Amino acid sequence: MTTSVQNRLAEVAPFVAACLDGDWTVNPDQARSRYAEPSVVLHDTRGLTILLNIDPYGRQDKISAVGVLPTTPDEVLDDEVYSADLPSGEIGMTVKKLDRPRQIAQEITRRLLPTLTAAHQEWLEQVAAARAKEGHRQRAGRVLAALPGVSEPRRNKSPHAPTNSLLLRWEGASRTPDAERHRHVTPAATVTVTATSALETVELNLTHLSVEAARAAILAAMNASSRPQD
Question: How high is the pLDDT of residue 170?
Fold first, then answer.
């Protein structure tokens, strides 16, 4: 890749942006920090992003225009947004089009933007669904954490746990069910919280409870589940 060709792309990029539908801006500094090769990034107010660079490996230098989806927001779990599976589009053009930025914009509009726009819309829907799921999980975690002695909810890292579930714990007073052997046990509960975008599900694992305490917990859960939902 020659520096002069790359510089020419940077000079032409604002004219390409001006010829695209919408309100596009050029941000070359972000490209240098985020991508391995020197590139020019075009953004528009809808959140669409296009990466422009020069292919240094072909028999002839070519302009590459690549659709780029946003990074997953920090408050959204990565494995609930499948951006890697969304085709965001990539096209190539001869560097001769650097003399005709309007044609570059036309190629982007015709060949790239429909694919990128569809992928971006799907990404937005996935992010919204992931936020809704996390909202329901966190709400359920807060309700359970308000019980006396229950720990704050944390992400369940167990490989056997449901994806993105929350974990809470409770321990009661130590008991001695076998006085002759002086064996002590501690009543405990482990709560796993999962959620879809509209429904929370709680799995309760009770250990070392007395029969009476376990019976009371099971009856309480059964009675609560049989009540009409709001």
Answer: 94
Contact 134/142 with Cβ under 8 angstroms? no
Distance of alpha carbon 147 from alpha carbon 78, whole angstroms: 30
pTM for this prediction: 0.78
Residue whose entry in the numeric block shows the structure tokens 């709001």: 230
Strands (E), the chain: 24-26, 40-44, 49-55, 62-68, 90-94, 154-155, 166-171, 175-178, 183-185, 188-195, 200-207
Q: How many Å apart are CA 134 and CA 203, to the nearest integer?
A: 17
| pLDDT average per 10 residues of sequence, the chain (230 residues) | 75 94 81 59 93 69 89 81 88 91 96 97 93 89 93 88 87 75 81 85 88 86 68
Structure-block tokens of residue 139: 């709400």
